[in-house]
UniProtKB/TrEMBL annotation:
Gene Ontology molecular functions: kinase activity
Gene3D superfamilies linked to this entry: Phosphoenolpyruvate-binding domains, PK beta-barrel domain-like
Keyword NADP: no
Pathway linked to the protein: Carbohydrate degradation; glycolysis; pyruvate from D-glyceraldehyde 3-phosphate: step 5/5
Transport found in the keyword field: no
Identification of the protein by name: Pyruvate kinase
Entry cofactors: K(+)
């Protein structure tokens, strides 16, 4: 017994030492980093970080054995809980009552949730839905989402910058029709600033071959002069050629040509619509391009003039080289004349700090490459991994450089962001800083907000890069200075930046740091994606969605069944609030039925 008592006293001493080390750490941080420790959230966040540094796993295990919660559970009120445990184990020890307690931690978090997200403790989970310009074609969807329980409407200015005002008007009109304004149920509007998203640039244009499949579509169409302004067609194809008019043409005449695959084909004239227009029938399926020659007669041959332009196709597979040019407005092209396929990007300045062996990801990680060579004009990337055997490089798809110091040459708040701010301020309730890297990004945005309006607008720090993760504590400490602040776990780009194997651990860390700082968290990217598209969730999606309920808001994206997903999240939230009761009642019902 004496041995056990000595061990207990030793662990109590360790607990006291842990508290004292955390307090000393707070004093040091306050002096060295000029952190205002009178702010309860800042003080507690710093205490939480110090706890991770000084905590002994044996001490945590001892507390659990003694009937206390794990120290890891006390993140919103670290020093208060430590002092409480010490007072229970050793009542004569000194206490400090100036640290945030459980009641005030809960109150502070609820207050911030209410002001930022419009969510009180009694309300269901706050649900953010990404709007899309296609919704403007079926405005009834706005009412469906509001009825289902959407509390925040998200507009991604990088995607819908041309129609954002119409989307806002659609939400407000739907609220008015439903009478939500009189019920104090106004949906908040959240907009992501585009930020420095690096994307594949435009591709070169080529004349797109005209494919006529006589087995699937009509073989009857029109052959027209390049100067013809007639529009006789109701269905079928239209081919214009470089002549002024058809002379000596007659019904039943055969017009020969060789298609793009070298196949002999011909048109039969069915009707002379006008001197500049012939109604014809194609004998077999054909592909016509800019080199196709139509033989009107032995001495009269013409080429097509109305082929449409379309981007070239760039395909890559493992082992291929893809060249990325550093010049602005470079138009991508496929492999030709012994040179590898090449592209430009929307922010060439992002390439300044890219070095050989740095990784490059395209299209949300579907294509992975590694930099082989860098020079003044371009860099060559070897493709080392693809989702499918052959992948297509498409314009406007994202490009990530997780190993390169991109943030040194590309600011998080861009000139386009600043221009857009002035326009969106009257309509927006929350603004997301895309690709935030540093706490100074928050200060920059706050300066512009103060310049444009006196209204309180929430600022959301989107954690989606490796460097944002490394600066997370400083970003949160700066953010809690604002009236309205929250953090979004933007898992799409973040997974690529830090590696898929690190994502689960990273999102847990973000949740804990925000919990310690009493800062609201938005759980984003790929939540119930399959259910949004088909109406039936994947099993793994259920686990992810349920885990996301630990956050304060869940963001879901577009899909034909998006309203069903909103309702489903609310049902999950109700079960989560009393899961044991729900499970016990259903189990008892089953057992009673089984014994009857």
């Amino acid at each position: 017994m004496e041995k056990i008592s000595n061990h207990k006293n030793e662990l109590i001493d360790q607990l006291i030492q842990l508290r004292d080390e955390i307090e000393d750490s707070l004093f040091d941080l306050s002096n060295s980093h000029q952190i205002d420790m009178t702010d309860a959230s800042k003080q507690n966040l710093c205490a939480f970080l110090a706890l991770q540094r000084f905590l002994n796993p044996a001490l945590d295990s001892f507390l659990v054995q003694e009937g206390f919660s794990s120290i890891q559970m006390m993140s919103p009120h670290v020093l208060y809980s430590l002092n409480k445990i010490i007072s229970h184990l050793s009542p004569n020890q000194r206490q400090n009552d100036h640290y945030i307690d459980i009641e005030h931690a809960v109150y502070l978090k609820n207050q911030r949730n209410q002001e930022l997200l419009g969510k009180s403790e009694e309300d269901p989970i706050s649900i953010m839905v990404t709007l899309d310009k296609t919704m403007l074609d079926t405005p009834e969807i706005f009412k469906d989402l509001l009825r289902a329980g959407m509390t925040i409407a998200r507009i991604n200015l990088a995607r819908d910058h041309s129609v954002w005002k119409k989307l806002v008007e659609g939400i407000r009109a739907a609220e008015e029709e439903l009478g939500f304004e009189t019920q104090d149920r106004t949906c908040k509007i959240y907009m992501d600033l585009p930020g420095p998203k690096i994307r594949v640039g435009d591709l070169r244009k080529i004349k797109v071959p005209l494919k006529i499949n006589t087995k699937k579509t009509s073989a009857v169409g029109y052959l027209m002069s390049q100067k013809s302004h007639e529009n006789p067609i109701k269905d079928g194809f239209v081919i214009k050629i470089n002549i002024d008019e058809f002379t000596n043409a007659a019904a039943g005449q055969i017009i020969h040509f060789t298609d793009a695959k070298g196949r002999k084909r011909f048109f039969t004239i069915l009707e002379i619509v006008s001197p500049a227009c012939l109604k014809v029938e194609l004998n077999k399926s054909a592909i016509l391009n800019g080199e196709t020659i139509v033989e009107l007669s032995p001495d009269k041959k013409s080429k097509l003039t109305n082929l449409l332009e379309g981007p070239v196709t760039i395909k890559v597979k493992m082992g291929d080289i893809l060249r990325i040019y550093k010049s602005y407005h470079y138009l991508g092209k496929p492999t030709m004349n012994g040179e590898p396929a090449s592209i430009g990007i929307t922010l060439p300045e992002a390439l300044r700090n890219v070095r050989p062996k740095d990784r490059v990801f395209f299209d949300d990680g579907n294509i992975c490459g590694v930099v082989l060579e860098v020079n003044d004009h371009y860099l060559d990337v070897e493709i080392i991994l693809t989702r499918n055997n052959v992948e297509t490089i498409k314009p406007d798809r994202g490009v990530n450089f997780p190993d390169s110091l991109v943030f040194l040459s590309v600011p998080a708040i861009t000139k386009m962001d600043i221009t857009m701010l002035a326009e969106i301020i009257p309509f927006v309730d929350l603004i997301g800083i895309s690709f935030i890297h540093h706490p100074n990004d928050i200060r920059i945005l706050k300066g512009y907000l103060d310049q444009y309006t006196e209204r309180k607008i929430g600022v959301i720090a989107k954690i989606e890069t490796k460097y944002a993760l490394l600066s997370l504590t400083k970003i949160v400490l700066e953010g809690v200075n604002l009236d309205l602040f929250g953090v979004m776990i933007a898992r799409g780009d973040l997974a690529i930046e830090i590696g898929y194997e690190q994502l689960a651990k990273a999102q847990e860390g973000i949740l804990e740091i925000c919990r310690a700082a009493h800062a609201p968290v938005i759980w984003a990217t790929s939540i119930l994606n399959q259910m949004n598209k088909t109406g039936i969730p994947l099993r793994a999606e259920l686990t992810d969605a349920y885990t996301g309920l630990r956050s304060d808001c869940i963001m879901i994206n577009k899909g034909p069944y998006i309203s069903n997903s909103v309702k489903f999240l609310q049902q999950l939230d109700q079960i989560k609030k009393d899961p044991l009761l729900e499970f016990r009642n259903s189990l008892l019902s089953f057992v009673q039925y089984d014994f009857q």
